[in-house]
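Per your request, structure below.
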């Protein structure tokens, strides 16, 4: 009888221990799962008039994604021409004003690109963007007189910036950082993430891809370059790390009137959408601001001038160029990291 009681007591203790063990396994599993969730976080959102996504690996992934999005929203509020109270809109309305650190940086980069490209890149293009309805999405071909008037306001030469970053615009001149803002934003966000210890992340700011480090398993990222026809038939894939990959093309924003398609990248010499046989230009560079600025600039320059420019700056960036005649061109720095189903023409 006594032995039976002891046996039951022992069995009960054994069962209790087993239950505690099982409970602990569950707790540990939960902890592990939470840890894993912490190790990776991705968020899709809409900002700067486009769909974006930020994905971050490592500790505090979610918090770091939140920091990235906060910075994007801060810069959107500062740089947007569509928001009446943004710094850029205020400068445009008042014919000038004090540049903040960010708009000051962007102005410097924009002036550099303007002079390097002999005016192909010109942020004072905004009156012309408005004339075509790209500013308020009321797209239409402008009357010749209206276009000429708008074009007469375009020239970065006439924008004055004093040493203490006070900018003055001539009457009617307005600025638009649209060709470079997303790249600058990507650079800024990458800086913030790195300062917070992030070693692996990918930002996709509406086609402006910025990579931080390599993938968590130590391999390169594979970034597909979209085919402008919208199909899954990519132009190619770039295998790289720690770089920006930025594409400009007329297919990104355009409208059709009387059977003719007009897009949003304007030749400042004519006031008309660029028509030079190019469909898209993709820049690969360690510098996100440069990648974005140059994608627009080289698209305006056309293949010959773009190639000439690359030959003078081949240590700073590479490009992939897709033409209306169906040919695909890459600069030699990409030859070991670019693959494509297209026939590849190499530029040296
Ligand atoms: P992206 O998509 O980076 O090529 O930028 C295109 C945007 O840049 C347009 O929507 C305009 O806001 C602006 N833009 C258009 N033409 C020019 C130009 N020639 N120089 C500078 N910015 C331009
Ligand atoms: Mg650009």
């Amino acid at each position: 009888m006594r032995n039976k009681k002891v046996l039951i007591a022992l069995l009960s203790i054994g069962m209790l221990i087993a239950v505690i063990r099982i409970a602990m396994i569950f707790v540990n599993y939960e902890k592990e799962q939470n840890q894993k969730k912490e190790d990776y976080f991705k968020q899709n959102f809409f900002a700067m008039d486009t769909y974006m996504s930020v994905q971050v690996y490592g500790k505090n992934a979610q918090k770091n994604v939140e920091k990235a999005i906060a910075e994007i929203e801060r810069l959107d509020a500062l740089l947007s021409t569509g928001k009446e109270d943004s710094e850029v809109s205020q400068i445009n309305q008042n014919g000038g004003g004090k540049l903040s650190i960010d708009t000051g940086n962007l102005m410097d980069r924009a002036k550099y690109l303007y002079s390097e490209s002999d005016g192909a890149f010109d942020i004072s293009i905004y009156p012309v963007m408005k004339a075509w309805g790209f500013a308020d999405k009321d797209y239409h071909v402008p009357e010749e007189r209206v276009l000429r008037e708008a074009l007469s306001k375009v020239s970065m030469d006439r924008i004055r910036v004093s040493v203490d970053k006070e900018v003055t615009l001539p009457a009617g001149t307005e600025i638009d950082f649209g060709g470079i803002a997303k790249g600058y934003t990507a650079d800024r966000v990458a800086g913030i993430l790195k300062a917070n210890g992030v070693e692996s992340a990918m930002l996709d700011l509406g086609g402006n891809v910025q990579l931080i480090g390599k993938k968590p398993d130590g391999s390169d990222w594979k970034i597909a370059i979209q085919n402008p026809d919208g199909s899954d038939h990519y132009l190619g894939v770039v295998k790289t790390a720690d770089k920006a990959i930025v594409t400009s093309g007329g297919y990104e924003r355009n409208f059709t009137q009387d059977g003719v398609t007009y897009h949003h990248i304007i030749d400042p010499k004519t006031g008309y959408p660029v028509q030079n046989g190019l469909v898209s230009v993709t820049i690969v560079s360690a510098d996100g601001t440069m990648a974005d600025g140059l994608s627009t600039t080289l698209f305006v320059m056309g293949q010959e001038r773009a190639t000439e420019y690359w030959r003078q700056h081949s240590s700073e960036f590479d490009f992939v160029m897709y033409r209306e005649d169906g040919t695909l061109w890459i600069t030699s720095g990409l030859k070991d990291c670019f693959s494509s189903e297209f026939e590849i023409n190499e530029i040296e």
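DSSP finds nine helices and 17 strands in the chain.

Regards,
D.
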